Amino acid sequence: MADQPTALERFVQGILPENPVYRQLLGLCPTLAVTNGMKPALTMAVSVAFVLVCANVVISLIRNLLKPHLRIVVFTLTIATFVTVADRVLAAYMFQMSKTLGPYIPLIIVNCLIICRCEVCASKQNVITAAADGLGQAIGFGLALASIAAVREILGTGMLMGFRVLPACWPDWVVMVLPPGAFITLGLLLGLVNYIDDKREQARK
Amino acid sequence: MSLKNSNLAQAWLVLLLATLFGTALAGIQAKLGPVIEANKVKETMAKIPVLVLGEDLAAELADDNQTLTIKSRVVEVKKNGITKFYTVYDAWLPEGKVVGHVVKADGQGYADKIELLVGIDAQGERITGLFVLDQKETPGLGAKILEHAWRGQFKEKSTAKHLSVVKGGGVEEDEIDAISGATISSKSVTGIVNSAVADVVSHLDVPAGPENNKIPAVQNKEPGKNSKNKERS
User: In which residue ranges is the amino acid composition biased (Basic and acidic residues) (chain B) (predicted)?
Assistant: First the structure.
């Protein structure tokens, strides 16, 4: 397999050109579920980053030992281990946040973004590239989560991380912090990203 | 089939990883488990004043820099040949008067186990409050059991009557209004409260002062372990 992207390319691609949420539409379950506030969104982003980088590194280290028909089992096993670590650490040191996020931390196990990176990159490339890929994708995921959470929290409560950003007379759009707000925000932001992309494409021509 | 192609030989990596990861996780659980358990105990202790006194009185007490004396004990209830264990926290005012009791109870919810704290007054006649310690109900529907507006309904209910869940209203003294879209969660919580109150209410008599130690302060049974002994119905 020639012409695999280098570590730097992998890293840069993950952040915007191949953003997990806006370009690949992966990992949408936590994207919709925990973005009603900036704090849970950032905690989720950090947890995913930890799992993603660790799983990528481990899979890359054992990539030559993988049997094609058993690889998904190995991916899932590795991911589940790191997710459990993240879950326990949160419960021990950030108890309230762990309760807020509830089942969504254990649910990182089924986040398709991580298994996708194991399949696409880590099982084929060396450790440094895999780590860079994990980091890039994690940053991209974090940016996406933070952007959605910012819109929802500001419009829904007038505050951002406990600080008031909109004047007190702002009528809180409560729907934005409820589940429908997640779909509305994600849809509009996706549209916006595609619109900007189109414009840039046209400008290049 | 040669050895090389046997299922076991092919799966060696999976087996090895499962063993390694399992051992690592057991180590982490052994290290962090007590911390997590301590977090839960701390949370329980922090809720008890509000549950037995109500929010206003609890705030007043905190303003006066006074605290309730809280001791936990394990109540054993034998019913139909099944032994159930409840952790009961008894609370005394600084001057030594029993002010109320809090029972920790759990049961099956819609999604997973629900853990509750039920406050009961000193005489064991009325419920003084309800708090949800742990739940994994559907966000936006069943998770509304966390909301003050819903669990506040249990306040002032008599412990003598079985509470029933009704849809739309709940005007009678022994009725709890169901959360729309989450009847099962509502019924689960009410059921847990009913059985906990019925089981424990006859075991609430405690000495007048916390120093009068007829009852061992904290028995050497961890609350978390007791719930596992509990018979699931």
Answer: 222-233
Instruction: Report how far residue B13's alpha carbon sits from residue A66's, in angstroms, rounded to the nearest whole number.
Output: 8
Over 80: is that where the pLDDT of B232 sits? no
Separation in Å, CA A193 to CA A23, A138, B136: 9, 19, 34
Can you give the residue range of the structural domain that contains A52?
A: 7-147
Which pLDDT score, from 0 to 100, does residue A201 have? Answer: 87
ipTM: 0.74
DSSP letters along A137-185, please?
A: HHHHHHHHHHHHHHHHHHHHHSEETTEE-S-TT----GGGGSHHHHHHH
Is B32–A178 a contact, with Cβ atoms under 8 angstroms apart?
Answer: no
Flag if B13 and A77 touch (Cβ within 8 Å): no
Closest approach of B212 to chain A, Cα-based (Å): 35
Is A166 domain-assigned? no
Chain B residue closest in CA terms to A90: B36
Q: How far is CA B193 from CA A193, B86, B103, B104, in A?
A: 50, 12, 9, 10
Which are the contacts of B123, defined by CB distance < 8 A and separation ≥ 6? Answer: none
Would you say residue A175 lies in a domain? no
Q: Is residue A26 part of a domain?
A: yes
pTM of this prediction exceeds 0.80: no
For residue B147, which residues of chain A lie inside 8 Å, CB to CB?
none
* Residue A103: pLDDT over 70: yes
Are B29 and A88 within 8 A, CB to CB?
yes
pLDDT tens digits, one per residue of A168-204: 777 777 778 778 888 999 999 999 988 988 898 888 8
CA angle, residues B84, B90, B93, in degrees to nearest 5 = 170
Q: What is the pLDDT of residues B39-75, one digit of tens each?
A: 888 888 888 888 888 777 777 777 777 777 888 788 8
CB contact under 8 A, A91 and B24: no
Report the alpha-carbon distance of residue B104 to residue B82 in Å, rounded. Answer: 18
- Give the distance from residue A85's alpha carbon to the nearest chain B alpha carbon, in angstroms: 7
Does the pLDDT of residue B144 top 80, yes or no?
yes
Q: How many domains does chain A have?
A: 1
Chain A environment of B111 (Cβ under 8 Å): 103
Rounded Cα gap, residues A192 and A181, in angstroms: 16
Is A183 among the domain residues? no
Q: Which of A33, A81, A103 minimises the CB distance to B21?
A: A81
Residue A126 DSSP code? -
Q: How far is A74 from chain B (nearest CA, A)?
A: 6
Query: Given the structure tokens 């900036």, which residue do they identify?
Result: A38
- Tokens 């659980």 correspond to B29
